[in-house]
Structures are given as C-alpha cells and as structure tokens.
C-alpha cells in the first residue's frame, strides 16, 4: 500500500469542473500583464489533505482533504451560475486513478461578495468541499 498524495485528487476536481464547461484556475488567477478575466470562472484552492490510518497496523492509505472553489462572475447572477455549475460537476464520485473516491461533500460558504480591488469589480462566492478516498 502506498501513502495517498494530494495532486491526483486536485487533478480529479479540476477535471470534473473543466468537463462541466468551466474555466478553472488553480491557486489564483493569472497575474500576467494584459490578462483579461472571463465574465465567469472558478478558482480552485486545495489544502494538502491528510493521510489517515486504514487499520491498526498504521497503514496510512485513506485520504481526506478539503478544497475551496471560489466562484467568480461579472455580476451576482454569474457568480451564482458558476456556483450552481460547480455543484452539478461535483454531484458524484471523483475519478482518482488507483483510488475509490466518495462524492465530494458540499460544506457551503458565505454569501456572495463584491471585490472592488479589481477593475472592473467582480462578485465572488467561495464554496468549500470535503473529499475522501481509499485505495481501490
């Protein structure tokens, strides 16, 4: 048995969101000059996860992690549209090679907020999820 790693889980979440037609950035938006944000997108912020014990033998093969998807739009409606699309995309088990994954558990988030630190201003709502997997 091998200790689980976080990156295949991050890839699985990103693939599910991309397959749902979302533009997805990992860890933030591009900072290059001249980058123009789309009118709606998602930003994935994963944590490193935890490798848990699968047995009293101390085999650390179970994986648990949380991640946040910040849903961004040019209007409140577009940010909420992204949140709806994220929920639809994560409404089923993830596909993680060599692992059996649970359906991500929606942990909710705060109300939609306006970000006036960018021009033009955007609206965003972060939604958090719990993910878990075991060896297949």
On the 0 to 100 scale, the average pLDDT is 93
Structural class: alpha+beta
Distance between the termini: 11 Å
Work out the number of β strands.
8
User: β content, as a range?
Assistant: 35-45%
Domains (count):
1
Q: Which percent range fits the helix content?
A: 10-25%
Low-pLDDT segments, ≥5 res: none
Q: Calculate Rg over CA atoms.
A: 16 Å
Q: Any idea what the shape is?
A: elongated
Helical stretch count? 2
Q: SSE string, helix = H, strand = E?
A: HEEEEHEEEE
CATH topology: STM4215-like
CATH C-level name: Alpha Beta
CATH architecture level-2 label: 2-Layer Sandwich
Main β-sheet: number of strands, strand sense, barrel status? 8 strands, mixed
Secondary structure layout plus pairing:
Layout: H1 7-19, E1 24-26, E2 40-46, E3 50-53, E4 60-73, H2 76-89, E5 99-101, E6 105-108, E7 113-115, E8 122-135
Parallel strand pairs: 1-2
Antiparallel strand pairs: 2-4, 3-4, 4-8, 5-8, 6-8, 7-8
Characterise the protein shown here.
By secondary structure, the protein is an alpha+beta fold. It has a single domain, classed as STM4215-like (2-Layer Sandwich), CATH 3.30.2000. The protein is about 20% helix and about 40% strand. The chain contains two helices and eight strands, in the order H-E-E-E-E-H-E-E-E-E. It has helices spanning about 5-20, 75-90; strands spanning about 25, 40-45, 50-55, 60-75, 100, 105-110, 115, 120-135. It is elongated. The model has no long low-confidence stretch (mean pLDDT about 95).
């Amino acid at each position: 048995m091998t200790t689980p790693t976080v990156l295949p889980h991050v890839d699985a979440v990103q693939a599910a969101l991309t397959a749902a037609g979302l533009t997805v950035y990992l860890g933030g938006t591009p900072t290059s000059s001249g980058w123009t944000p789309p009118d709606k997108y998602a930003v994935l912020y994963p944590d490193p996860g935890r490798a848990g014990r699968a047995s009293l033998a101390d085999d650390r093969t179970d994986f648990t992690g949380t991640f946040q998807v910040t849903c961004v739009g040019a209007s409140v409606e577009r940010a909420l549209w992204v949140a709806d699309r994220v929920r639809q995309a994560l409404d089923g088990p993830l596909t993680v090679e060599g692992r059996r994954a649970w359906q991500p558990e929606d942990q909710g988030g705060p109300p939609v907020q306006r970000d006036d630190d960018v021009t033009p201003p955007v609206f965003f709502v972060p939604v958090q999820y719990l993910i878990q997997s075991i060896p297949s």
